[in-house]
Design a protein that fits this description.
Layout (H helix, E strand, L loop, with lengths): L20 H8 L6 H5 L5 E3 L15 E14 L5 E8 L2 E7 L4 H6 L5 E11 L2 E5 L2 E4 L11 E3 L8 H14 L8 H7 L4 H9 L7 H5 L4 H27 L10 H9 L6 H14 L6 E6 L5 H14 L3 E5 L3 H15 L6 E4 L5 H13 L4 E4 L13 E7 L6 H10 L8 E6 L5 H6 L5 E5 L9 E7 L3 H13 L3 E5 L14 H11 L5 E4 L5 H12 L5 E4 L12 E6 L7 H8 L9 E7 L5 H12 L3 H12 L1 H4 L2 H4 L13 H17 L1 H11 L4 H4 L2
Parallel strand pairs: 4-6, 9-14, 9-15, 10-12, 10-13, 11-12, 13-14, 16-21, 17-19, 17-20, 18-19, 20-21
Antiparallel strand pairs: 1-8, 2-3, 2-5, 3-4, 5-6, 5-7
Helix pairs in contact: 6-8, 8-24, 8-25, 9-11, 10-11, 20-21, 24-25
Catalytic activity: Couples ATP hydrolysis with the unwinding of duplex DNA by translocating in the 3'-5' direction; ATP + H2O = ADP + phosphate + H(+)
GO molecular function: 3'-5' DNA helicase activity; ATP binding; ATP hydrolysis activity; DNA binding
Keywords: ATP-binding, DNA damage, DNA recombination, DNA repair, DNA-binding, Helicase, Hydrolase, Isomerase, Nucleotide-binding
């Protein structure tokens, strides 16, 4: 995805005045590369060092600051080596202990020295004590700080004292430019940025620490709005830049599409017809489409993609579909081949498992333009694969690919100076707030209805203590001519997790159900074995398929009406919903049994409650976002997506709406302010955000 990019941020410099190379390297781990970045490195929490507490009234379990004289300080060897000091004030004596200490600390705590200690008081064998308190020497009557003490996120080798000193220096020397129009700040009730930063780095002791730490203070609201606005500006600029680039105009010739629809045994839903029309209109203009086709499990995204690919072929261009797993890619290839063979269109198939000679022949036909359509796994983006007239790239389950992989497929197409159109598909519905933020530069089509004939799936929660009853249910269902899945989370035994393995489960079920034909599919099988087992299951020759999550997406066997998920508490909500969607594809009543092990963790219980109570993928996605946060939801861990540091998509929905509106007017009326805001928060790192 060749996109507009801001000037790249400079690499970590050797340092700047007052910061040497070693310190600069540690600061870079916190994404601090210049003094201005220190200003936006905001506290996690605060400590109140503005008051002293008498030793006699210090409450156990609460942090306190005491001041007193060192009565004694010794290194004791029992029960273990530790530094023990006795500190006295007018009200009593307190024991301070350090299990890890330096000679300098012992020297600091010389008898007769006056010190201040900050830490949590607790009851000890010899009365009140503090373990590993923070300590520094003072003179009698020395003044107390006038603001709460900030505690910052840090990294190994970088202490709080150093960070505070650097941040205070930046606050004193850096000019904080106010880039938001005063009218906008007044309308939203936002303080100025300089005022907000001072309030967060050095809050008044009158402000309750809880208000600051819960981020309810107006200063936090200003920070969260700026971050959301910078993100919206970045995505809006990406959208505008895409509209300025050129792509082949794929005119909507209805010949191939009409013939395909006439031969299908089903009619498109209203939602599918709407999505087809939206995509066809985008493909017909000479700007690269970047559209997300979003629909629940079984909503019929593949036929929509097929019609889009035919529009490319009708216009004389190639189309390629990339899927994250071989099973899913092969299912797409088989389905497209079945649909398009009557039209005389052959679909190429590229995967890592195909023989070298077969792959070379397929690649040659793609390079010559003899094959107009290709389906594959990540093998599609490997260097030798040439798609000289690629007009449309389709990425299924797009969140399961890294950003660089999605970029690579799009960059395969180089029809002169024209880039291909991009259609991304996801069966994990994206909550509205997430669509407005991380996906704001995409156009979105939603399939919000299921094709007729899809039966609701009944979900049951069953403790693994009742495994025998579940096996009996499988036996009964298969005896009635139905088929079943049994899904396991691991392939081989993990002592740490103590999970049932696919292989062990297979062996157990073969012994318990000798009258059934049972297949086994997992990621370690050779592709040919995997394909043969899946084909036998699809043909009804295998009654029960034991599998890992390789069958999570793409498997369509209408006769399968029972799904058992082993250790369901270990799966994410999106996975559980996807797996459940493998059944209910025929006319028979379908059941999904979630087998769980006791004791359930709090998060495991929360996930199972959500999946048990909801069948709507959009409702599940909202809960998933609430439980996991946006980072994992969008696949950021594997894609490098820069996450929001301070804003919360769920809690800040009103600010997100306001930022979305403000981004358009700021770019139009105050472009320099918009650029300054983007540089302040993203500094050239927005390229991956927009991929």
């Amino acid at each position: 995805m060749a996109r507009e990019r801001a000037a790249p941020r400079p690499a970590a410099a050797p340092g700047w005045p007052g910061v040497g190379a070693q310190l600069a390297a540690r600061l870079a781990k916190l994404d601090i590369r210049a003094p201005r970045d220190l200003l936006l490195h905001l506290p996690l929490r605060y400590e109140d060092e503005t008051r002293l507490t008498a030793i006699a009234v210090a409450r156990p379990g609460f942090p306190a600051q005491i001041e007193g004289e060192v009565v004694s300080c010794d290194v004791t060897l029992r029960p273990r080596r530790q530094l023990v000091a006795h500190i006295a004030d007018a009200s009593g004596t307190l024991v301070a202990r350090w299990l890890h200490f330096y000679p300098s600390q012992q020297k600091l705590l010389a008898p007769g020295r006056r010190v201040r200690l900050f830490g949590e008081v607790r009851g000890g064998f010899f009365g009140s004590e503090m373990v590993h308190p923070r300590v520094h020497p003072v003179n009698a009557g020395e003044s107390l700080p006038e603001a709460l003490t900030p505690v910052y996120p840090t990294t190994a080798g970088l202490g709080q004292a150093t960070l505070r000193k650097l941040i205070d220096r930046a606050l004193a020397s850096e000019t904080v430019a106010e880039v938001l129009p005063p009218a906008l700040c007044a309308r939203l009730g936002l303080p100025g940025l300089a005022e907000a930063l001072r309030a967060l780095h050095h809050p008044s002791p009158e402000v309750p620490a809880s208000v600051l730490e819960d981020r309810q203070h107006p200063a936090w609201r200003r920070i969260r709005f700026e971050e959301l606005l910078a993100q919206q500006i970045s995505l809006r600029r990406a959208y505008n830049a895409r509209r300025a680039r050129r792509a082949p105009a794929l005119a909507a010739g209805d010949g191939l599409a009409r013939r395909l629809l006439a031969g299908l045994p089903f009619a498109l839903t209203a939602a599918q017809r709407r999505a087809v029309a939206e995509i066809a209109a985008d493909l017909a203009v000479p700007h690269p489409m970047q559209r997300l086709l979003m629909g629940d499990v079984g909503s019929g995204k593949t036929i929509v993609a097929a019609l889009a690919m035919l529009q490319a072929v009708d216009a004389g261009y190639q189309a390629a579909l990339m899927a994250p797993t071989e099973i899913l890619a092969e299912q797409h290839w088989q389905k497209l081949s079945q649909w398009l063979a009557p039209l005389g269109i052959e679909v190429g198939w590229l995967s890592g498992s195909r023989g070298k000679r077969a792959r070379a022949a397929e690649m040659a036909r793609l390079a010559d333009g003899e094959l107009m359509l290709a389906v594959g796994t990540h093998a599609l983006i490997e260097d030798p694969v040439a798609l000289p007239r690629l007009g449309l790239a389709v990425v299924d389950e797009q969140h399961r690919f890294g950003v660089r992989q999605r970029l690579a497929l799009r960059e395969k197409g180089a029809a002169g100076a024209l880039g291909p159109h991009l259609l991304m598909m996801s069966a994990t519905p994206i909550p509205r707030t997430l669509a407005m933020s991380h996906y704001a530069d995409l156009d979105v089509s939603v399939l919000d209805e299921l094709p007729p004939g899809r039966t609701p799936v009944i979900t049951k929660l069953v403790s693994d203590a009742r495994r025998g009853e579940v096996i009996a249910r499988v036996r009964a269902g298969c005896a009635e001519g139905r088929q079943a899945y049994w899904v396991c989370p691991l392939i081989e035994e993990s002592e740490a997790l103590q999970l049932q393995t696919a292989q062990d489960t297979y062996d157990t079920l073969v012994a318990a159900l000798p009258e059934l034909r049972i297949g086994l599919v997992h990621g370690r099988l050779k592709p040919a074995e995997k394909s043969a087992t899946m084909a036998a299951f699809a043909a009804g020759e295998v009654h029960l398929l034991v599998a890992t999550t390789v069958i999570e997406v793409g498997v369509d066997v209408p006769n399968a009406s029972l799904m058992v998920i082993e250790h369901a508490e270990r799966f994410g909500l999106a996975q559980l919903h996807q797996l459940r969607g493998r059944v209910g594809r025929g006319s028979a009543a379908s059941v999904c049994i979630l087998l769980y092990a006791q004791p359930l963790s709090q998060s495991g219980r929360a996930r199972l409650k959500v999946i048990y109570e909801n069948s709507d993928g959009f409702a599940i996605a909202r809960e998933d976002l609430r439980i996991r946060g946006p980072g994992e939801f969008v696949g950021a861990r594997q894609s490098g997506l820069p996450l929001l540091r301070y804003a919360d998509l769920e809690a800040d929905g009103d600010l997100l709406e306001a930022a979305r509106e403000a981004s358009t007017s700021l770019l139009r009326d105050h472009p320099q302010a918009a650029a300054a805001l983007q540089e302040r928060w993203l500094g050239g790192r927005e390229g991956l955000l927009r991929a």
